[in-house]
Amino acid sequence: MLAETGIPTKENLASIMPPDERLAQGPVAIAECFQNIPCDPCYHSCKQGAIQEFQDINDRPQIDFNKCNGCGSCMSRCPGLAIFVVDATYGDNEALVKIPYEFLPIPEVGEIVTAINRAGQPVADAKIIKVQNTKVQDRTAIIWLAVPKEYMMEVRHFKVKEVR
Amino acid sequence: MRQIEIAIVGGGPAGLAAALNASKLGARVILIDRNDYLGGQLIKQTHRFFGSKQQRASERGIDIALELAREVMSNEHIEVLTKATALGYYEDGVLLVEQAGKIIAIKPERVIIATGGAEKTLLFPNNDLPGVYGAGAVQTLVNVYGVKPGQRVLMVGAGNIGVIVSYQLLQAGVEVAAIIEAAPRIGAYWVHAAKVVRAGVPIYTRHTILRAIGEREVKGAVIAQLDENWQPIPGTERELAVDVICLSVGLTPLTELLWQAGCQMTFVPELGGNVPLRNEQLETSVPGIYVAGDVGGIEEASAAMMEGALAGLNAAASLGYTCDTLIDDRQNVLQQLAGLRSGPVGEKIRKGLAQCSL
Ligand SMILES: Cc1cc2nc3c(=O)[nH]c(=O)nc-3n(C[C@H](O)[C@H](O)[C@H](O)COP(=O)(O)OP(=O)(O)OC[C@H]3O[C@@H](n4cnc5c(N)ncnc54)[C@H](O)[C@@H]3O)c2cc1C
Ligand code: SF4
Ligand code: SF4
Protein backbone atom coordinates (compact mmCIF):
# COMPACT_ATOMS: atom_id res chain seq x y z
CA MET A 1 0.00 0.00 0.00
CA LEU A 2 1.13 3.52 -0.87
CA ALA A 3 1.11 4.76 2.74
CA GLU A 4 3.37 1.87 3.79
CA THR A 5 5.79 1.66 0.90
CA GLY A 6 5.58 4.92 -1.03
CA ILE A 7 4.68 2.93 -4.14
CA PRO A 8 1.25 3.57 -5.69
CA THR A 9 -0.81 0.40 -6.16
CA LYS A 10 -2.53 -0.81 -9.34
CA GLU A 11 -5.82 0.44 -7.89
CA ASN A 12 -4.35 3.89 -7.14
CA LEU A 13 -3.12 4.12 -10.70
CA ALA A 14 -6.27 2.74 -12.33
CA SER A 15 -8.23 5.57 -10.73
CA ILE A 16 -6.27 8.31 -12.49
CA MET A 17 -5.27 6.84 -15.86
CA PRO A 18 -6.46 8.42 -19.08
CA PRO A 19 -8.61 6.08 -21.18
CA ASP A 20 -6.98 4.19 -24.08
CA GLU A 21 -8.89 6.28 -26.64
CA ARG A 22 -7.32 9.44 -25.24
CA LEU A 23 -3.85 7.87 -25.12
CA ALA A 24 -4.24 7.02 -28.80
CA GLN A 25 -4.63 10.72 -29.58
CA GLY A 26 -1.24 11.93 -28.33
CA PRO A 27 0.52 13.34 -25.27
CA VAL A 28 -1.47 13.66 -22.06
CA ALA A 29 -0.67 14.50 -18.44
CA ILE A 30 -1.07 12.01 -15.61
CA ALA A 31 -1.10 13.35 -12.04
CA GLU A 32 0.07 10.63 -9.65
CA CYS A 33 -1.08 12.58 -6.62
CA PHE A 34 -3.14 10.36 -4.34
CA GLN A 35 -3.40 12.22 -1.08
CA ASN A 36 -5.47 15.19 0.00
CA ILE A 37 -2.76 17.70 0.84
CA PRO A 38 -2.87 21.50 1.01
CA CYS A 39 -1.36 22.13 -2.41
CA ASP A 40 -2.62 23.54 -5.70
CA PRO A 41 0.13 24.90 -8.02
CA CYS A 42 -0.82 22.37 -10.72
CA TYR A 43 -4.24 23.98 -11.05
CA HIS A 44 -2.73 27.47 -11.34
CA SER A 45 -0.10 26.41 -13.86
CA CYS A 46 -2.41 24.95 -16.52
CA LYS A 47 -3.27 27.54 -19.15
CA GLN A 48 -5.55 25.10 -20.97
CA GLY A 49 -7.90 24.93 -18.00
CA ALA A 50 -7.45 21.16 -18.08
CA ILE A 51 -7.02 20.86 -14.32
CA GLN A 52 -10.32 21.34 -12.58
CA GLU A 53 -10.52 24.28 -10.20
CA PHE A 54 -9.89 23.27 -6.58
CA GLN A 55 -12.90 23.90 -4.32
CA ASP A 56 -10.64 23.29 -1.37
CA ILE A 57 -6.86 23.50 -1.40
CA ASN A 58 -6.77 19.91 -0.16
CA ASP A 59 -8.53 18.60 -3.27
CA ARG A 60 -6.68 16.20 -5.53
CA PRO A 61 -6.02 17.26 -9.11
CA GLN A 62 -8.62 16.13 -11.64
CA ILE A 63 -7.39 16.37 -15.20
CA ASP A 64 -9.84 16.81 -18.06
CA PHE A 65 -7.99 14.64 -20.57
CA ASN A 66 -9.86 16.19 -23.48
CA LYS A 67 -8.61 19.67 -22.61
CA CYS A 68 -5.06 18.57 -21.78
CA ASN A 69 -2.66 18.89 -24.72
CA GLY A 70 0.31 17.36 -22.92
CA CYS A 71 2.30 20.62 -22.94
CA GLY A 72 3.92 19.74 -19.59
CA SER A 73 3.72 23.23 -18.04
CA CYS A 74 2.25 21.75 -14.88
CA MET A 75 5.13 19.28 -14.46
CA SER A 76 7.83 21.64 -13.24
CA ARG A 77 5.47 23.52 -10.91
CA CYS A 78 4.42 20.46 -8.93
CA PRO A 79 6.41 20.35 -5.67
CA GLY A 80 5.73 16.62 -5.46
CA LEU A 81 7.17 15.92 -8.92
CA ALA A 82 4.02 13.87 -9.29
CA ILE A 83 2.93 14.81 -12.82
CA PHE A 84 4.14 12.97 -15.91
CA VAL A 85 3.24 13.27 -19.58
CA VAL A 86 2.91 10.13 -21.67
CA ASP A 87 2.72 10.11 -25.46
CA ALA A 88 1.67 6.69 -26.69
CA THR A 89 1.70 7.86 -30.32
CA TYR A 90 5.43 8.58 -30.41
CA GLY A 91 6.36 5.50 -32.46
CA ASP A 92 5.19 2.04 -33.41
CA ASN A 93 7.12 0.35 -30.64
CA GLU A 94 8.14 3.25 -28.50
CA ALA A 95 6.29 5.72 -26.34
CA LEU A 96 7.49 9.02 -24.94
CA VAL A 97 7.52 9.53 -21.18
CA LYS A 98 8.29 13.03 -19.85
CA ILE A 99 9.86 12.99 -16.40
CA PRO A 100 10.55 15.85 -13.97
CA TYR A 101 14.18 15.53 -12.91
CA GLU A 102 16.25 17.32 -10.27
CA PHE A 103 19.47 15.29 -10.18
CA LEU A 104 22.88 15.82 -11.72
CA PRO A 105 24.21 15.18 -14.23
CA ILE A 106 21.41 16.17 -16.59
CA PRO A 107 21.67 13.67 -19.45
CA GLU A 108 22.26 14.72 -23.06
CA VAL A 109 20.00 14.20 -26.02
CA GLY A 110 20.74 10.85 -27.64
CA GLU A 111 22.16 9.34 -24.44
CA ILE A 112 20.95 5.89 -23.40
CA VAL A 113 19.84 5.74 -19.76
CA THR A 114 18.35 3.07 -17.52
CA ALA A 115 14.60 3.50 -17.20
CA ILE A 116 13.33 2.94 -13.65
CA ASN A 117 9.87 2.05 -12.35
CA ARG A 118 7.95 3.42 -9.36
CA ALA A 119 9.62 0.91 -7.05
CA GLY A 120 13.09 2.07 -8.04
CA GLN A 121 13.80 -1.01 -10.17
CA PRO A 122 15.40 -0.86 -13.64
CA VAL A 123 12.99 -2.04 -16.34
CA ALA A 124 14.55 -1.16 -19.72
CA ASP A 125 16.95 1.04 -21.59
CA ALA A 126 15.61 4.39 -22.74
CA LYS A 127 16.86 7.10 -25.05
CA ILE A 128 16.91 10.80 -24.19
CA ILE A 129 14.90 12.64 -26.83
CA LYS A 130 14.77 16.12 -25.41
CA VAL A 131 15.90 18.07 -22.34
CA GLN A 132 13.83 21.08 -21.26
CA ASN A 133 15.54 23.13 -18.60
CA THR A 134 14.54 26.75 -18.98
CA LYS A 135 14.66 29.53 -16.42
CA VAL A 136 10.89 29.37 -15.89
CA GLN A 137 11.24 25.74 -14.83
CA ASP A 138 13.47 26.92 -11.98
CA ARG A 139 15.80 23.92 -11.71
CA THR A 140 13.23 21.21 -12.35
CA ALA A 141 14.27 19.81 -15.74
CA ILE A 142 11.83 17.87 -17.88
CA ILE A 143 13.47 14.95 -19.63
CA TRP A 144 11.79 13.21 -22.55
CA LEU A 145 12.49 9.48 -22.65
CA ALA A 146 11.69 7.11 -25.49
CA VAL A 147 10.83 3.78 -23.86
CA PRO A 148 9.48 0.47 -25.19
CA LYS A 149 5.72 0.97 -25.37
CA GLU A 150 4.90 -1.83 -22.93
CA TYR A 151 6.72 0.10 -20.20
CA MET A 152 5.20 3.53 -20.74
CA MET A 153 2.97 3.19 -17.67
CA GLU A 154 5.80 1.85 -15.53
CA VAL A 155 8.76 4.08 -16.24
CA ARG A 156 8.75 7.08 -13.91
CA HIS A 157 12.44 7.73 -13.31
CA PHE A 158 15.81 6.97 -14.85
CA LYS A 159 19.46 6.68 -13.96
CA VAL A 160 22.33 7.86 -16.13
CA LYS A 161 24.57 4.94 -16.99
CA GLU A 162 27.81 6.53 -15.83
CA VAL A 163 28.85 9.88 -14.57
CA ARG A 164 30.65 11.74 -17.31
CA MET B 1 20.02 50.21 27.74
CA ARG B 2 18.52 50.21 24.25
CA GLN B 3 14.86 51.23 23.96
CA ILE B 4 12.84 49.90 21.04
CA GLU B 5 9.19 49.50 20.14
CA ILE B 6 9.32 45.85 19.05
CA ALA B 7 12.04 43.24 19.54
CA ILE B 8 11.77 40.05 17.52
CA VAL B 9 13.83 37.02 18.52
CA GLY B 10 14.41 34.65 15.58
CA GLY B 11 15.00 35.51 11.93
CA GLY B 12 13.24 32.52 10.35
CA PRO B 13 10.15 32.90 8.18
CA ALA B 14 8.05 33.82 11.23
CA GLY B 15 10.43 36.50 12.51
CA LEU B 16 11.04 37.96 9.04
CA ALA B 17 7.33 38.21 8.28
CA ALA B 18 6.71 39.71 11.72
CA ALA B 19 9.38 42.37 11.17
CA LEU B 20 8.08 43.30 7.72
CA ASN B 21 4.48 43.54 8.83
CA ALA B 22 5.18 45.48 12.02
CA SER B 23 7.36 47.97 10.14
CA LYS B 24 4.74 48.29 7.42
CA LEU B 25 2.50 49.90 10.02
CA GLY B 26 5.31 52.21 11.08
CA ALA B 27 6.72 50.50 14.16
CA ARG B 28 10.46 50.44 14.87
CA VAL B 29 11.85 46.92 15.10
CA ILE B 30 14.99 45.09 16.17
CA LEU B 31 15.33 41.60 14.70
CA ILE B 32 17.73 39.27 16.50
CA ASP B 33 19.14 35.98 15.22
CA ARG B 34 22.01 33.88 16.48
CA ASN B 35 23.01 32.74 13.00
CA ASP B 36 25.17 34.81 10.68
CA TYR B 37 22.37 34.72 8.12
CA LEU B 38 18.64 35.35 8.13
CA GLY B 39 16.06 32.80 7.01
CA GLY B 40 16.12 30.16 9.76
CA GLN B 41 15.27 26.68 8.50
CA LEU B 42 14.31 28.05 5.10
CA ILE B 43 17.90 28.53 4.09
CA LYS B 44 18.28 24.73 3.86
CA GLN B 45 15.06 24.01 2.01
CA THR B 46 16.14 23.60 -1.59
CA HIS B 47 12.91 21.84 -2.56
CA ARG B 48 9.70 23.42 -3.80
CA PHE B 49 7.09 24.17 -1.16
CA PHE B 50 3.52 22.99 -0.99
CA GLY B 51 0.67 25.32 -0.25
CA SER B 52 -1.31 27.79 -2.27
CA LYS B 53 -0.23 30.48 -4.67
CA GLN B 54 -0.79 33.21 -2.05
CA GLN B 55 1.74 31.54 0.22
CA ARG B 56 4.24 31.18 -2.61
CA ALA B 57 3.71 27.49 -3.18
CA SER B 58 5.99 25.82 -5.70
CA GLU B 59 8.78 28.24 -4.81
CA ARG B 60 11.90 26.91 -3.13
CA GLY B 61 12.40 27.72 0.56
CA ILE B 62 15.86 29.08 -0.06
CA ASP B 63 14.55 31.61 -2.58
CA ILE B 64 11.78 32.75 -0.24
CA ALA B 65 14.38 33.21 2.50
CA LEU B 66 16.68 35.28 0.31
CA GLU B 67 13.87 37.53 -0.82
CA LEU B 68 12.44 38.11 2.66
CA ALA B 69 15.93 38.70 4.07
CA ARG B 70 16.70 41.25 1.38
CA GLU B 71 13.45 43.09 2.07
CA VAL B 72 14.20 43.16 5.79
CA MET B 73 17.80 44.32 5.33
CA SER B 74 16.76 47.23 3.14
CA ASN B 75 13.96 48.35 5.47
CA GLU B 76 14.87 51.48 7.40
CA HIS B 77 12.52 50.67 10.25
CA ILE B 78 14.21 47.34 10.95
CA GLU B 79 17.56 46.97 12.65
CA VAL B 80 19.03 43.51 12.17
CA LEU B 81 21.33 41.91 14.72
CA THR B 82 22.85 38.68 13.42
CA LYS B 83 25.30 36.41 15.29
CA ALA B 84 23.31 37.66 18.26
CA THR B 85 21.79 35.29 20.80
CA ALA B 86 18.94 36.30 23.06
CA LEU B 87 20.10 34.90 26.39
CA GLY B 88 17.31 35.84 28.70
CA TYR B 89 14.19 37.83 29.35
CA TYR B 90 13.86 39.38 32.79
CA GLU B 91 11.04 40.45 35.08
CA ASP B 92 11.58 44.12 34.36
CA GLY B 93 11.02 43.44 30.64
CA VAL B 94 14.68 43.52 29.65
CA LEU B 95 15.96 41.27 26.91
CA LEU B 96 19.65 40.39 27.18
CA VAL B 97 21.43 39.70 23.91
CA GLU B 98 24.98 38.50 23.37
CA GLN B 99 26.72 39.62 20.20
CA ALA B 100 30.45 39.21 19.47
CA GLY B 101 31.23 38.65 23.14
CA LYS B 102 29.34 41.76 24.24
CA ILE B 103 26.09 41.90 26.16
CA ILE B 104 23.38 44.22 24.89
CA ALA B 105 20.41 45.06 27.12
CA ILE B 106 17.26 45.89 25.20
CA LYS B 107 14.04 47.20 26.68
CA PRO B 108 11.33 46.63 24.11
CA GLU B 109 7.70 47.70 24.44
CA ARG B 110 6.59 44.52 22.68
CA VAL B 111 8.41 41.21 22.12
CA ILE B 112 7.75 38.66 19.42
CA ILE B 113 9.31 35.28 20.12
CA ALA B 114 9.92 33.38 16.87
CA THR B 115 12.74 31.06 17.89
CA GLY B 116 11.51 28.01 15.94
CA GLY B 117 12.18 24.45 17.03
CA ALA B 118 14.96 22.08 18.11
CA GLU B 119 15.47 18.52 16.94
CA LYS B 120 14.44 15.56 19.06
CA THR B 121 16.75 12.60 19.42
CA LEU B 122 16.35 8.87 19.96
CA LEU B 123 17.63 6.46 22.58
CA PHE B 124 19.58 3.39 21.37
CA PRO B 125 22.97 1.82 22.18
CA ASN B 126 25.90 3.68 20.60
CA ASN B 127 23.83 6.71 19.67
CA ASP B 128 26.78 8.83 20.80
CA LEU B 129 29.12 7.55 18.06
CA PRO B 130 30.37 10.08 15.54
CA GLY B 131 28.19 9.58 12.49
CA VAL B 132 24.88 9.76 14.34
CA TYR B 133 23.35 13.08 13.35
CA GLY B 134 20.06 14.91 13.46
CA ALA B 135 18.44 15.43 10.06
CA GLY B 136 18.66 19.19 10.49
CA ALA B 137 22.40 18.93 11.07
CA VAL B 138 22.81 16.81 7.95
CA GLN B 139 20.76 19.33 6.01
CA THR B 140 22.95 22.15 7.28
CA LEU B 141 26.13 20.28 6.31
CA VAL B 142 24.88 19.43 2.83
CA ASN B 143 22.88 22.51 1.88
CA VAL B 144 24.57 25.33 3.78
CA TYR B 145 28.20 24.21 3.89
CA GLY B 146 28.35 21.84 0.91
CA VAL B 147 29.85 19.00 2.95
CA LYS B 148 28.91 15.33 2.49
CA PRO B 149 28.23 13.80 5.92
CA GLY B 150 29.34 10.34 4.69
CA GLN B 151 28.92 7.78 1.94
CA ARG B 152 25.88 5.75 2.92
CA VAL B 153 23.11 6.87 5.22
CA LEU B 154 20.36 5.17 7.20
CA MET B 155 17.50 7.63 7.70
CA VAL B 156 15.37 7.08 10.79
CA GLY B 157 11.90 8.62 10.42
CA ALA B 158 9.64 8.88 7.37
CA GLY B 159 8.03 12.23 8.09
CA ASN B 160 8.42 15.11 5.67
CA ILE B 161 11.83 16.02 7.04
CA GLY B 162 13.29 12.49 6.88
CA VAL B 163 12.03 12.01 3.36
CA ILE B 164 13.07 15.43 2.05
CA VAL B 165 16.51 15.24 3.63
CA SER B 166 16.92 11.79 2.03
CA TYR B 167 16.04 13.34 -1.32
CA GLN B 168 18.53 16.15 -0.78
CA LEU B 169 21.23 13.61 0.17
CA LEU B 170 20.60 11.79 -3.12
CA GLN B 171 20.87 15.11 -4.95
CA ALA B 172 24.23 15.64 -3.25
CA GLY B 173 25.44 12.25 -4.46
CA VAL B 174 25.15 10.45 -1.11
CA GLU B 175 23.65 6.96 -1.03
CA VAL B 176 20.63 6.38 1.23
CA ALA B 177 20.42 2.71 2.24
CA ALA B 178 16.87 2.94 3.58
CA ILE B 179 14.37 5.06 5.44
CA ILE B 180 12.89 3.31 8.46
CA GLU B 181 9.75 4.36 10.32
CA ALA B 182 8.33 2.89 13.51
CA ALA B 183 4.75 3.89 12.69
CA PRO B 184 2.68 1.70 10.36
CA ARG B 185 2.33 4.56 7.86
CA ILE B 186 4.57 7.05 6.14
CA GLY B 187 4.12 10.47 7.74
CA ALA B 188 5.54 12.48 4.83
CA TYR B 189 3.40 13.58 1.93
CA TRP B 190 3.12 10.51 -0.28
CA VAL B 191 4.32 12.40 -3.34
CA HIS B 192 7.63 13.06 -1.52
CA ALA B 193 7.82 9.40 -0.49
CA ALA B 194 7.12 8.26 -4.06
CA LYS B 195 9.95 10.35 -5.44
CA VAL B 196 12.62 8.94 -3.11
CA VAL B 197 11.36 5.39 -3.57
CA ARG B 198 11.61 5.58 -7.34
CA ALA B 199 15.09 7.04 -6.91
CA GLY B 200 16.01 3.74 -5.25
CA VAL B 201 15.49 4.27 -1.51
CA PRO B 202 13.26 1.66 0.18
CA ILE B 203 10.98 2.83 2.99
CA TYR B 204 10.34 0.27 5.74
CA THR B 205 7.42 1.15 7.98
CA ARG B 206 7.00 -0.68 11.34
CA HIS B 207 10.81 -0.77 11.67
CA THR B 208 13.15 0.62 14.26
CA ILE B 209 16.85 0.93 14.90
CA LEU B 210 18.14 -1.43 17.63
CA ARG B 211 21.71 -0.16 17.82
CA ALA B 212 24.54 1.49 15.98
CA ILE B 213 27.60 -0.62 15.18
CA GLY B 214 31.15 0.67 15.46
CA GLU B 215 33.93 1.42 17.91
CA ARG B 216 35.08 4.93 17.11
CA GLU B 217 32.59 5.84 14.41
CA VAL B 218 29.45 4.46 12.84
CA LYS B 219 30.11 1.40 10.67
CA GLY B 220 26.58 0.09 10.50
CA ALA B 221 23.18 -0.19 12.08
CA VAL B 222 20.96 -3.04 13.22
CA ILE B 223 17.30 -2.57 12.40
CA ALA B 224 14.31 -4.76 13.17
CA GLN B 225 10.64 -5.04 12.41
CA LEU B 226 8.07 -4.01 15.05
CA ASP B 227 4.91 -5.84 16.06
CA GLU B 228 1.49 -4.36 16.81
CA ASN B 229 2.73 -3.19 20.23
CA TRP B 230 5.79 -1.50 18.77
CA GLN B 231 8.05 -4.30 20.10
CA PRO B 232 10.93 -5.63 17.96
CA ILE B 233 10.08 -9.03 16.46
CA PRO B 234 12.90 -11.51 17.28
CA GLY B 235 14.56 -12.94 14.19
CA THR B 236 13.83 -9.90 12.02
CA GLU B 237 17.11 -8.13 12.86
CA ARG B 238 19.03 -6.93 9.85
CA GLU B 239 22.41 -5.28 9.62
CA LEU B 240 22.96 -2.37 7.24
CA ALA B 241 26.45 -1.16 6.34
CA VAL B 242 26.22 2.61 6.72
CA ASP B 243 28.55 5.33 7.95
CA VAL B 244 25.83 7.80 8.89
CA ILE B 245 22.68 7.33 10.94
CA CYS B 246 20.42 10.29 10.47
CA LEU B 247 17.67 10.89 13.03
CA SER B 248 14.55 12.60 11.88
CA VAL B 249 12.19 11.96 14.74
CA GLY B 250 10.56 15.33 15.11
CA LEU B 251 11.08 18.82 16.38
CA THR B 252 10.15 20.41 19.66
CA PRO B 253 9.44 24.12 20.21
CA LEU B 254 12.39 26.18 21.48
CA THR B 255 10.61 27.83 24.37
CA GLU B 256 13.25 28.81 26.98
CA LEU B 257 12.60 32.54 26.66
CA LEU B 258 8.87 32.02 27.10
CA TRP B 259 9.40 29.99 30.29
CA GLN B 260 11.70 32.70 31.59
CA ALA B 261 9.17 35.37 30.85
CA GLY B 262 6.63 33.43 32.89
CA CYS B 263 4.26 32.67 30.02
CA GLN B 264 1.69 30.00 30.82
CA MET B 265 2.77 26.82 29.06
CA THR B 266 1.05 23.52 28.31
CA PHE B 267 2.23 20.17 26.96
CA VAL B 268 0.63 19.42 23.59
CA PRO B 269 2.09 16.33 21.85
CA GLU B 270 0.39 17.30 18.57
CA LEU B 271 2.45 20.50 18.49
CA GLY B 272 5.76 18.86 19.45
CA GLY B 273 5.99 19.53 23.19
CA ASN B 274 5.47 22.40 25.61
CA VAL B 275 3.89 25.41 23.95
CA PRO B 276 2.67 28.78 25.22
CA LEU B 277 -1.02 29.52 25.59
CA ARG B 278 -1.95 32.33 23.22
CA ASN B 279 -5.03 34.28 22.13
CA GLU B 280 -6.22 34.90 18.60
CA GLN B 281 -3.85 37.87 18.45
CA LEU B 282 -0.96 35.44 19.16
CA GLU B 283 -0.32 37.23 22.44
CA THR B 284 0.75 34.98 25.34
CA SER B 285 -0.51 35.15 28.91
CA VAL B 286 2.15 37.83 29.54
CA PRO B 287 0.82 41.02 27.99
CA GLY B 288 3.07 42.34 25.23
CA ILE B 289 4.76 39.02 24.47
CA TYR B 290 3.68 37.44 21.21
CA VAL B 291 4.63 34.12 19.60
CA ALA B 292 4.81 33.06 15.96
CA GLY B 293 5.95 30.00 14.03
CA ASP B 294 7.36 26.70 15.26
CA VAL B 295 7.96 27.97 18.80
CA GLY B 296 4.18 28.04 19.21
CA GLY B 297 3.78 24.55 17.71
CA ILE B 298 5.76 22.67 15.06
CA GLU B 299 4.09 23.29 11.74
CA GLU B 300 5.22 24.61 8.35
CA ALA B 301 7.03 27.60 6.93
CA SER B 302 3.88 28.83 5.22
CA ALA B 303 2.02 28.82 8.53
CA ALA B 304 5.04 30.35 10.26
CA MET B 305 5.02 33.25 7.80
CA MET B 306 1.30 33.82 8.26
CA GLU B 307 1.64 33.74 12.04
CA GLY B 308 4.59 36.10 11.85
CA ALA B 309 2.56 38.51 9.76
CA LEU B 310 -0.27 38.34 12.27
CA ALA B 311 1.96 38.81 15.32
CA GLY B 312 3.73 41.72 13.61
CA LEU B 313 0.48 43.47 12.73
CA ASN B 314 -1.01 42.91 16.17
CA ALA B 315 2.06 44.00 18.10
CA ALA B 316 2.33 47.19 16.04
CA ALA B 317 -1.42 47.84 16.29
CA SER B 318 -1.26 47.48 20.07
CA LEU B 319 1.25 50.34 20.07
CA GLY B 320 -1.29 52.51 18.30
CA TYR B 321 -0.11 52.08 14.73
CA THR B 322 -2.69 51.46 12.08
CA CYS B 323 -3.50 51.69 8.38
CA ASP B 324 -6.63 51.73 6.22
CA THR B 325 -6.45 48.04 5.41
CA LEU B 326 -5.48 46.74 8.86
CA ILE B 327 -8.74 44.93 9.58
CA ASP B 328 -8.82 43.33 6.14
CA ASP B 329 -5.14 42.42 6.28
CA ARG B 330 -5.63 40.61 9.57
CA GLN B 331 -8.74 38.86 8.33
CA ASN B 332 -6.97 37.78 5.17
CA VAL B 333 -4.10 36.22 7.14
CA LEU B 334 -6.51 34.42 9.46
CA GLN B 335 -8.39 33.03 6.49
CA GLN B 336 -5.22 31.76 4.83
CA LEU B 337 -4.11 30.13 8.06
CA ALA B 338 -7.46 28.40 8.37
CA GLY B 339 -7.13 27.19 4.77
CA LEU B 340 -3.66 25.77 5.37
CA ARG B 341 -4.83 23.91 8.42
CA SER B 342 -8.08 22.73 6.89
CA GLY B 343 -7.63 19.28 5.31
CA PRO B 344 -6.97 15.83 6.77
CA VAL B 345 -3.22 16.53 7.17
CA GLY B 346 -4.10 19.63 9.21
CA GLU B 347 -6.17 17.65 11.68
CA LYS B 348 -3.31 17.14 14.11
CA ILE B 349 -2.51 20.86 14.13
CA ARG B 350 -6.16 21.81 14.66
CA LYS B 351 -6.39 19.35 17.53
CA GLY B 352 -3.20 20.74 19.03
CA LEU B 353 -4.16 24.39 18.71
CA ALA B 354 -7.49 23.77 20.36
CA GLN B 355 -5.56 22.85 23.53
CA CYS B 356 -3.55 26.03 23.87
CA SER B 357 -5.82 28.96 23.20
CA LEU B 358 -6.29 31.60 25.85
C1 LIG C 1 13.76 19.33 6.21
C2 LIG C 1 12.63 20.34 6.38
C3 LIG C 1 11.71 20.44 5.36
C4 LIG C 1 10.69 21.38 5.45
N1 LIG C 1 9.82 21.50 4.40
C5 LIG C 1 8.85 22.44 4.45
C6 LIG C 1 7.94 22.63 3.35
O1 LIG C 1 8.01 21.92 2.33
N2 LIG C 1 7.00 23.60 3.44
C7 LIG C 1 6.91 24.35 4.53
O2 LIG C 1 6.03 25.23 4.55
N3 LIG C 1 7.73 24.19 5.58
C8 LIG C 1 8.70 23.25 5.57
N4 LIG C 1 9.55 23.08 6.65
C9 LIG C 1 9.26 23.76 7.89
C10 LIG C 1 9.80 25.13 7.99
O3 LIG C 1 11.16 25.23 7.57
C11 LIG C 1 9.66 25.57 9.43
O4 LIG C 1 8.36 25.28 9.88
C12 LIG C 1 9.88 27.05 9.54
O5 LIG C 1 11.20 27.35 9.17
C13 LIG C 1 9.57 27.55 10.92
O6 LIG C 1 9.80 28.91 10.94
P1 LIG C 1 10.18 29.69 12.23
O7 LIG C 1 10.47 31.08 11.78
O8 LIG C 1 9.15 29.45 13.25
O9 LIG C 1 11.49 29.01 12.80
P2 LIG C 1 12.96 28.80 12.22
O10 LIG C 1 12.98 28.76 10.75
O11 LIG C 1 13.49 27.62 12.95
O12 LIG C 1 13.74 30.08 12.68
C14 LIG C 1 14.03 30.35 14.01
C15 LIG C 1 15.26 31.23 14.09
O13 LIG C 1 15.43 31.65 15.41
C16 LIG C 1 16.78 31.69 15.74
N5 LIG C 1 16.90 31.60 17.21
C17 LIG C 1 16.41 30.64 18.01
N6 LIG C 1 16.67 30.92 19.30
C18 LIG C 1 17.33 32.09 19.31
C19 LIG C 1 17.86 32.92 20.35
N7 LIG C 1 17.74 32.59 21.63
N8 LIG C 1 18.48 34.05 19.99
C20 LIG C 1 18.60 34.40 18.70
N9 LIG C 1 18.11 33.67 17.69
C21 LIG C 1 17.48 32.54 17.98
C22 LIG C 1 17.35 30.52 15.00
O14 LIG C 1 18.71 30.70 14.75
C23 LIG C 1 16.54 30.55 13.70
O15 LIG C 1 17.17 31.29 12.68
C24 LIG C 1 10.58 22.15 6.61
C25 LIG C 1 11.49 22.03 7.64
C26 LIG C 1 12.53 21.14 7.55
C27 LIG C 1 13.54 21.04 8.68
S1 SF4 D 1 0.12 19.04 -19.60
FE1 SF4 D 1 -0.39 21.16 -20.08
S2 SF4 D 1 -2.52 21.08 -20.66
FE2 SF4 D 1 -2.10 19.16 -19.64
S3 SF4 D 1 -2.67 19.50 -17.53
FE3 SF4 D 1 -0.49 19.99 -17.68
S4 SF4 D 1 -0.40 22.18 -18.10
FE4 SF4 D 1 -2.49 21.51 -18.49
S1 SF4 E 1 0.90 20.44 -7.58
FE1 SF4 E 1 1.49 18.27 -7.57
S2 SF4 E 1 1.47 17.65 -5.40
FE2 SF4 E 1 0.34 19.60 -5.58
S3 SF4 E 1 -1.81 18.95 -5.81
FE3 SF4 E 1 -0.97 19.26 -7.85
S4 SF4 E 1 -0.25 17.23 -8.47
FE4 SF4 E 1 -0.54 17.17 -6.25
Automatic annotation (TrEMBL), chain A:
Name all 4Fe-4S ferredoxin-type domain ranges. Answer: 59-88
Pfam (any one): Fer4
Keyword annotations: Iron, Iron-sulfur, Metal-binding
| MF-aspect GO terms | iron-sulfur cluster binding; metal ion binding
- Protein name, as recorded: 4Fe-4S ferredoxin
Q: Which InterPro entries match?
A: 4Fe4S_Fe-S-bd (IPR017896), 4Fe4S_Fe_S_CS (IPR017900)
Query: Which SUPFAM superfamilies has this protein been placed in?
Result: 4Fe-4S ferredoxins (SSF54862)
Automatic annotation (TrEMBL), chain B:
**Which keywords does UniProt give here?**
Oxidoreductase
Does the record bear Oxidoreductase in its keywords? Answer: yes
Residue ranges of the TM segments: none
The record's GO molecular-function terms, alphabetically, read: oxidoreductase activity
Locate the FAD/NAD(P)-binding domain: which residues?
5-308
What InterPro entries would the database entry show?
A: FAD/NAD-bd_sf (IPR036188), FAD/NAD-binding_dom (IPR023753), Metab_Enz_Cyan_OpOx_G3PDH (IPR051691)
Name of the protein in its database record: Pyridine nucleotide-disulfide oxidoreductase
- Originating organism: Desulforamulus ferrireducens
Q: What is the lineage of its organism?
A: Bacteria, Bacillati, Bacillota, Clostridia, Eubacteriales
